[in-house]
Amino acid sequence: MNTIDIQAIFGKDYNEFSEIDPFNPQNKVSGYISRKPTEFYGALIITHINDKPVNSQLIMGSPKMHYPFQTMQDGSRKYNFPIAKYIEAYEKIDGCVSFETKILLVDGTYQKIGKLYERVVNGEKIKILNYDFNTKEVVIDTIITAVRKFLNGTFVKVKCRGNHDHSGNFTVNCTSNHKFYTEKGWKEAGELLVGDRVFRYMEHSLPFVVYEMVKGCILGDGILYKQNLMGNARFEISQCQNHREYIELILKILKDLVNAPIDILHKNCSDGWNRQTQYRVRTKQSAAFNKLYEEMYSKRDFRKLDLTPISLAFWYMDDGSLCKSTKQRPRAMLHTQGFSDKEIGGLSYALRLKGIDSTIETVEGYKVIVTRADASDKFFSLISPYIPKSMHYKLPESYRVEKSYFEQININMEQDIDLCDVIGIEPSIKRKHQYDLHTNNGNYFANDYLVHNTNILSYSYSDGDNQFTTFKTRLRPFLTPGRFGDFLGMWREVATDYFTEIEREMDRSNCNLSFELFGSRNTHLIVYDEPLTFKLLFGVTNEGKILSPTQLKNPDLPILEPMQVIDKDYALNYEATQKELQSKLKELDDGYYAGMEGTVWYLQTPDGKCIQLKNKPETIETIHFTQGLSISKNSIIATCWNAFENTDTLTLDFIAQLLLEEFPQHQIDANHILIHKCIQFVTEEAQFKAEVLNAYKTTGMNILLQKTDVMRQLSTKFPKNKMKKVYSIIAKG
Hints:
The protein is α+β, with helices and mostly antiparallel strands. Helices cover 26% and strands 31% of the residues. The longest helix is centred in the last third of the chain and has 28 residues, at 672-699.
């Protein structure tokens, strides 16, 4: 068994860890993580898997980037660029929409973004409706700033068809790099394809999770029905007494759609199979169910049925069983007694469209669908995050997760989001200006469509027989949901569809991949236009070699935007870029800034090495790279919020460790009192926010509809002088 001398590599500055890998929940991984501010910063040494020793594995972390200069006592700079063949510069960009684009206001009316721009620059505080990705609901937000600039790029016209009731067709004119939120995350307008589905604000719609759960249950034991043709539909499902926990999960997800608690039915009556108690959940009649009613019962053509992982999970939990055999891997069987042969064939076809091949077999005189052995792994991988412990007996042991998705989220019935089909993309008429808005949640509804940086490292490890891919932040061995930031959930939200490509690139380049997770939902110093997205920064081998985005060029992974290749006058180009970045930076309230945080420079040396350098606007650089002994309060506070990526409890030692990325030890020592005060401030702010949101949750009300009642109830729990802040926290989510 190979071992590694930990102290020889990490010195004395490391922590021991033993944690469950959330991406491979069957593995408890143990080892050591370096806190040493060198090339081993955040590196791991893995020594045990499931308490069994393995060959020690060194996993390099994301190395720090550096400024290419020293600041002299007189304030001048002494540049120290290494000898280079050339430098590749990369930047981030944002997209905008046209003057006529209508923005959804808080009162439900619309106004053109060009008119809103004029009102905002004249000092008006305008409230709009936008989407909170944390609470999964439409919320009230305030426009922080409005931007108008000369057109940079081309405008396109995105045409979409509504899928809800008779919502018709809608159009958005925007720059080709403006982002829309789709089923697969954020996509630029120029990347949209006919058939893509984008999010749109709609009244009387079901949240995505509820819609997909009910769809899956209809394929199983549930039913949607109308008491008359002109009325609204309602949903009903019954389960045996052994499935009480499962029926309680369904009740939790349906939430406000249910008036009464679980009904007890048919007590001690035979249901045809067993003689036992039945539990029933029945919803209110609601227009929110009508679209799904039409989809599932009007034509019964299941070939076009969109089976998502959630709908598959509930179909399987309702009417599925695990097929075990000594000759084959475990397979999934879906019982289809209530369907015609044509409908069963359609369901099998719908599964095939999701990459799940199956056969139709006859068992005890009834038709069933059985996944093929090769497709069963994919099927179980898709549904396993949504299967609670009470249903684990239907899963192979290797797919049973400790905590299901539904134990980690809060479903809100006031989401009002619909999915609309993209039916066309074409060039738009020429325009002089482009417009954009900055909000707290980082998004807004443009013509009804939903249009803080965390480093995430992908790496792999082995138990001797199998290789596993997972993800970490800088100073944690794995991504985890914390009290003040669900980095695991955010990463899964934006990156799940890319996991196969990430593994492929890791194998091709034989390296770990470093990503930046950023957006307005992950706030640091910069307020971004998009709520949440990510970019590939670089690759790093476990020998410490850096690979630039050019060396990793994979068309299926989002990378930073290439800016220029520089082969001379490095210092002049550096300062010119910095001035351009500074000219686009705008200070907002509470110490935040709108604009571009900076550029990344990858210096390629003659001997084949890649050195990373950072170039930031002067304002941001001043915060990060302060002269003398003073460290700015903003920089410390930003570091404290950033620390929640790695811990739920802020300590002086931990914040000092993070500050070592930017400041020398003597400078940190000189500011220990200010650091302590900033820790106390951020901790109190985070705790107060958590208390407010928890108290709001217990009210069971929606502040958009019942503001007076909500605030009256909360006024009994919080001081009067804090109520304005309480409302602001709830409105922002």
